[in-house]
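Private note to self, pasted from the team thread so I don't lose it. Backbone tokens:
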């Protein structure tokens, strides 16, 4: 399983609880301090699609699950290619992007440069939660006061920026308090589609704060599911195991 998200970790843990399965969870190694799961895992790239295909063959995997972040487009493309090369069945554990609700003041954009432009000319107080890899685009809009939130402590190259470090999931009350305390006027976020980081969107809605939302990249076609139950059912069907696979441990 290709991981790197809270949802992917939840799925791996649920599948890993089943004694009939051996699950190996793979991380890119993007965070300095990986919160290590209790199940078998590895860290680091495979060397492109060919490297992943070789890895799948060498270790005789029966299935590949892509549970990466929706913006990890390269890894998802590599998974599709490696599955085609090896014939190993591929499931993408995808997330439905957040949908606009009444009261949302969203500006939807398709890349981070457009997000920086969408902040406008006038200096604003901005909560920037796009991840450390995407901060460079905001150098083009240096007039804003950025509150940057990342998992790791990093050196900021934006002139008027402060850093806070935190790892989701986040709670609505905390997100609301942060926006009020910091007098935030704009939130910038990826449309990651996960519950874990949605509370900032809800808090912004409640406070009438516009959100600049970067839409996820389009991925090559793959068999997709969006719920833990559906992912477990796919694995169960693949193994010809009981349809209760994965369900059996729920609620324990
Ligand atoms: P990416 O561009 O899709 O992947 C780049 C390379 O990283 C892949 O080609 C692969 O290297 C390696 N890689 C990615 N995920 C891996 C995994 N689960 N196991 C092993 N290797 C993996 O992804 P990215 O550079 O990490 O990030 C792109 C965007 O996604 C950024 O906006 C980032 O913030 C967001 N994101 C990524 C993750 C994550 O865990 N990757 C988590 C949260 C957010 P090889 O080609 O050598 O195999």
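Design output:
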């Amino acid at each position: 399983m290709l991981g790197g998200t809270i949802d992917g970790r939840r799925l791996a843990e649920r599948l890993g609880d089943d004694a009939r399965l051996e699950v190996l969870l793979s991380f890119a190694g993007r965070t300095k301090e990986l919160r290590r799961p209790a199940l078998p895992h590895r860290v680091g790239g495979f060397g492109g699609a060919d490297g992943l295909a070789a890895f799948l063959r060498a270790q005789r995997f029966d299935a590949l699950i892509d549970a990466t972040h929706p913006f990890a487009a390269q890894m998802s493309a590599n998974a599709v290619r490696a599955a085609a090369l090896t014939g190993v069945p591929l499931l993408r554990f995808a997330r439905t992007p957040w949908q606009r609700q009444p009261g949302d003041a969203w500006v939807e954009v398709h890349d981070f440069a457009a997000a920086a432009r969408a902040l406008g000319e006038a200096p604003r107080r901005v909560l920037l939660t796009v991840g450390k890899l995407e901060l460079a685009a905001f150098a083009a809009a240096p007039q804003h006061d950025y509150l940057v939130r990342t998992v790791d402590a990093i050196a900021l190259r934006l002139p008027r920026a402060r850093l806070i470090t935190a790892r989701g999931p986040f709670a609505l009350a905390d997100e609301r308090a942060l926006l009020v305390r910091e007098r935030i006027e704009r939130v910038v976020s990826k449309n990651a589609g996960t519950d874990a980081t949605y509370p900032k969107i809800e808090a912004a809605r409640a406070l009438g704060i516009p959100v600049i939302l970067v839409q996820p990249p389009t991925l090559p076609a793959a068999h997709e599911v969006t719920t833990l139950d559906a992912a477990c059912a796919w694995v169960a069907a693949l193994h010809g195991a009981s349809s209760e696979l994965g369900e059996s441990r729920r609620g324990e």
